[in-house]
């Protein structure tokens, strides 16, 4: 018992004086060392005080905390031990000195440690109460310290020689009271002591009651401070954990090597007042580490097992867990994933590139010239419009906004809502090469791909909402990508703080899903006086009311928007989201979409202030441009069809006209370069024929009139002229030949169509041929004109003949007569029967005609000389007639 007391005492230099019997006991040699050391520290009040305070300058750096801790805790323990562990109730009688000497041994370190094990279940509340009590004592002690310290010290030193007592220590004061009893007679002290005792007693009773089953006798197993025990166990556990961690981390070997030197070092640092204990503690021996860590009182036990100390004193390896350094993943390309793809590349392409990107080489740096080459070769890049565009200072924030990022069914909506029909599900058949591009069936149907309806997995480019989810998870305003701004004249709005690629998802439109009746009700009541509405038609006659909703509710309307609001089916459920338009979005742009606003009533119609060129003026429904365009397209198609029909009809007509001259027609068409051109001549042919015929007719008429005027002056030259014409059939063909090649061809065509088949002489006669081919009206006209020309010619000939009758030299031979007659027969018999008859009957000699054909110079002279009377008229008329014929 005494040994224990000594241990306890020695181990706790700052602990209050144990009792007078301690001093009566002869000090042991080893304890002397300790006593000397601690005496040096504790003799003066300053030292005592400084030890209780947090800064003990005298103590070494390593000793300081230990001493301080020891002081407080052990003192508490002693207090507790003094109060709780007193087995003899008589010893606590008032007025008698407290039999500390009897009690103290039970509060030795060993016992405490044993008690620690028993008291592992002590509650925190009791610790707290202890602490409070001790602190109260401390407060009191400090207050009274100034007045009493000197006396106490002098008394102590002078009377009782208690060097280990630290008078200034609050605990020591209370201890002193406990032990000395009458020595401290002041009322406050007693009161405090009683309070502390009461608290401790209560605590002890509680604890005793708790462990009554395990402790047969109070005296044998005194209760040690619960707090201490819990600390011990905690520290023990911690050290065990650290040991384990060290072994896990593979540092055991290093520790093993360090332990040798560390042990030596620690031994040197260890308090030198370690007293080797001669008498081993009794049965209540606790694990050494606990003692060692708790207080000086444990030192003996530590000393008695020196071979264990290196292991027990395993250094607490601090596993420093560095915070992982965060690298900025985006610089200039805020919000954009890095890619080597050209800016012009589509997003799907980029996704593919990212998917197949090889990991960056990390072993060796790039060669020296790599940077130079990169600089020289250059690389296209897209610089955001505004890399850093903070919001203007003093931007107000929408206070009334209640945010929700998920759709919430309200009222009857959830019960009315029906699950999607399986029929509405879609499955895509895309392959990796295409990667669910714009041809993906799911995309086309506004179905988001997932593992259930698409087999491409990460290579799929149709998982916008999934992407949005990841962005939201990553957090940060550049991932979210949008922020609320205050616009000048449209309330709040939303702008981007990063870039968005064309058709990239930006933000989901969420809110309360309500029925239509609920919506109307809200419109009538809650939103009656509102200027802004956050209602949007959703699905199944439901409406999203984003008055409580996501940030997308602040997106304003524009008649020329840069975004689209789209409804997609994601995992069988409809969801609305804002997507970037075809132009993409630059940093700092205000996001807008076309509301296609239905104002419900006329009084809700609002003026649009989007400021776009194509502004519709009001927030109203979008004009049905598509429908209009479709109607226009249909009208155009109808007109085209009509034209085609007409063209086909005309072609059919022309084909019918050219029925007899198919082969020649084919020849004409063959000359055209293309199919279109092949069709053209058919149409132009009729026109050209018509024009050619008209010209010929007009000329023939004019020539006819001229002939009539100069009829009287016709001479033999006329006969020659008439005889020189080869045949009437060539006349119409020759005339165009003098003109442009196009007209020639036209004329040819005309000739081909009509004339070649009709013998020129008979044409006139065969005028009834018109009845044979009544459809060929134009050809008939031509025939008529040629007939008229022939008539004119025949008339001229007849006149010439008549004249030649009178002339002596121009008597035709029989052959000439026959020819003339033959020519005359070409005239329409009906029209010129008389003339023909006359010509025949007269049998006028028209021999010079064949001569004229030859037209030798002698003949010309002769004719000139003979035709003296008709000198003027004859050449001109004949020439004109010839020309007219030729033209015709
Ligand atoms: C969904 S809210 C948009 C956010 C709203 N600006 C705010 O401050 O909360 C729709 C309302 O914004 C206003 N608004 C949106 N676009 C507008 C525009 N182009 N011209 C005028 N007002 C507009 C209208 O009052 C409309 O009812």
From TrEMBL:
Localization annotation: Chromosome; Nucleus
Tagged with keyword Protein biosynthesis: no
Domain AWS: 423-469
Compositionally biased region (Basic and acidic residues): 197-208, 294-305, 622-649, 781-806
Region annotated Disordered, chain positions: 1-110, 143-235, 249-318, 335-356, 619-888
Limits of the SET domain: 480-596
Low complexity bias spans: 46-59, 857-881
Record keywords, A-Z: Chromosome, Methyltransferase, Nucleus, S-adenosyl-L-methionine, Transferase
Molecular function (Gene Ontology), one example: histone methyltransferase activity
Biased composition (Polar residues): 100-109, 170-188, 211-221, 700-709
Post-SET domain segment(s): 604-620
Compositional bias per record (Basic residues), positions renumbered to this chain: 650-667, 763-775
Keyword S-adenosyl-L-methionine carried by entry: yes
GO terms under cellular component: chromosome; nucleus
GO biological process, one term: methylation
Name of this chain's protein: SET domain-containing protein
Organism: Aspergillus taichungensis
């Amino acid at each position: 018992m005494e040994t224990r007391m000594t241990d306890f005492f020695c181990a706790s230099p700052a602990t209050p004086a144990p009792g007078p019997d301690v001093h009566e006991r002869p000090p042991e040699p080893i304890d002397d060392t300790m006593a000397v050391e601690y005496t040096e520290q504790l003799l003066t009040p300053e030292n005592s005080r400084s030890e209780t305070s947090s800064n003990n300058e005298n103590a070494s750096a390593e000793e300081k905390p230990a001493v301080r801790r020891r002081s407080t805790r052990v003192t508490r323990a002693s207090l507790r031990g003094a109060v709780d562990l007193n087995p003899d109730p008589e010893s606590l009688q008032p007025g008698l000195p407290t039999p500390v000497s009897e009690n103290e041994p039970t509060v030795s370190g060993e016992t405490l440690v044993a008690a620690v094990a028993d008291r592992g279940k002590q509650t925190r509340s009791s610790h707290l109460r202890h602490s409070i009590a001790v602190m109260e004592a401390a407060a009191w002690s400090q207050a009274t310290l100034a007045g009493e310290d000197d006396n106490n010290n002098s008394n102590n030193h002078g009377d009782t020689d208690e060097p280990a007592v630290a008078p200034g220590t609050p605990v020591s004061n209370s201890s002193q009271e406990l032990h000395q009893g009458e020595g401290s007679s002041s009322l406050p002290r007693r009161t405090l002591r009683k309070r502390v005792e009461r608290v401790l007693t209560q605590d002890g009773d509680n604890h005793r009651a708790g462990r009554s089953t395990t402790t047969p006798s109070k005296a044998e197993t005194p209760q040690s401070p619960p707090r201490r025990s819990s600390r011990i166990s905690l520290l023990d556990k911690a050290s065990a954990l650290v040991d384990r961690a060290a072994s896990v981390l593979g540092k055991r070997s290093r520790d093993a090597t360090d332990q040798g030197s560390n042990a030596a070092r620690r031994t040197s640092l260890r308090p030198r007042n370690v007293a080797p204990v001669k008498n081993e503690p009794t049965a209540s021996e606790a694990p050494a580490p606990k003692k060692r860590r708790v207080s000086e009182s444990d030192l003996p036990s530590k000393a008695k097992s020196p071979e264990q100390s290196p292991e027990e004193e395993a250094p607490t390896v601090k596993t420093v867990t560095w915070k992982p350094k965060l690298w900025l993943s985006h610089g200039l390309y805020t919000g954009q994933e890095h890619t080597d793809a050209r800016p012009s590349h589509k997003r799907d392409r980029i996704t593919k590139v990212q998917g197949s990107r090889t990991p960056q080489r990390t072993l060796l740096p790039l060669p020296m010239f790599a940077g130079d080459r990169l600089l020289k070769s250059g690389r296209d890049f897209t610089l955001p419009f505004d890399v850093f565009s903070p919001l203007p200072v003093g931007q107000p924030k929408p206070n009334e906004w209640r945010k929700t990022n998920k759709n919430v069914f309200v009222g009857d909506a959830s019960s009315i809502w029906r699950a999607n029909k399986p029929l509405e599900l879609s499955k895509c058949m895309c392959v990796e090469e295409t990667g669910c591009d714009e041809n993906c069936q799911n995309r086309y149907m506004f179905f988001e791909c997932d593992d259930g309806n698409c087999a491409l997995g990460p290579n799929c480019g149709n998982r916008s909402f999934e992407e949005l989810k990841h962005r939201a998870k990553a957090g940060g305003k550049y991932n979210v990508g949008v922020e609320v701004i205050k616009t000048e004249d449209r309330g709040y709005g939303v702008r981007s703080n990063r870039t968005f690629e064309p058709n990239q998802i930006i933000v989901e439109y969420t809110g309360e899903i309500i029925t239509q009746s609920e919506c109307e009700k809200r419109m009538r009541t809650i939103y009656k006086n509102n200027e802004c509405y956050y209602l949007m038609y959703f699905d199944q006659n439901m409406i999203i009311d984003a008055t409580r909703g996501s940030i997308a509710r602040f997106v304003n309307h524009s008649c020329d928007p840069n975004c689209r609001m789209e409804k997609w089916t994601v995992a069988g459920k409809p969801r609305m989201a804002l997507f970037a338009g075809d132009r993409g979005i630059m940093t700092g742009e205000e996001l807008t979409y076309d509301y296609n606003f239905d104002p419900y009533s006329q009084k809700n119609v609002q003026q649009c202030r989007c400021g776009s060129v194509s502004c519709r003026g009001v927030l109203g429904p979008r004009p049905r441009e598509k429908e209009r365009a479709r109607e226009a397209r249909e009208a155009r198609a109808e007109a085209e069809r009509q034209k085609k029909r007409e063209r086909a009809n005309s072609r059919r007509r022309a084909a019918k006209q050219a029925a007899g001259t198919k082969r020649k027609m084919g020849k004409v068409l063959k000359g055209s370069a293309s199919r279109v051109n092949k069709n053209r001549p058919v149409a132009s042919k009729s026109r050209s024929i018509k024009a050619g015929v008209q010209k010929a007719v007009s000329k023939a008429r004019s020539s006819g009139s001229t002939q009539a005027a100069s009829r009287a002056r016709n001479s033999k030259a006329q006969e020659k002229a008439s005889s020189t014409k080869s045949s009437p059939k060539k006349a119409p063909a020759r005339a165009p030949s003098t003109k442009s090649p196009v007209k020639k061809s036209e004329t040819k065509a005309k000739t081909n169509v009509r004339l070649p088949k009709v013998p020129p002489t008979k044409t006139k006669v065969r005028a009834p041929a018109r009845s044979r081919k009544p459809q060929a009206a134009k050809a008939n006209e031509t025939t008529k004109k040629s007939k008229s020309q022939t008539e004119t010619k025949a008339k001229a000939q007849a006149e010439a003949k008549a004249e030649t009758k009178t002339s002596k030299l121009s008597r035709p031979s029989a052959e000439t007569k026959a020819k003339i007659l033959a020519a005359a027969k070409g005239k329409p018999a009906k029209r010129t029967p008389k003339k023909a008859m006359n010509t025949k009957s007269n049998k006028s000699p028209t021999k010079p005609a064949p001569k004229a054909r030859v037209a030798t110079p002698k003949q010309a002279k002769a004719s000139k000389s003979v035709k003296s009377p008709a000198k003027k008229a004859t050449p001109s008329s004949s020439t004109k007639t010839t020309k007219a014929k030729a033209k015709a």
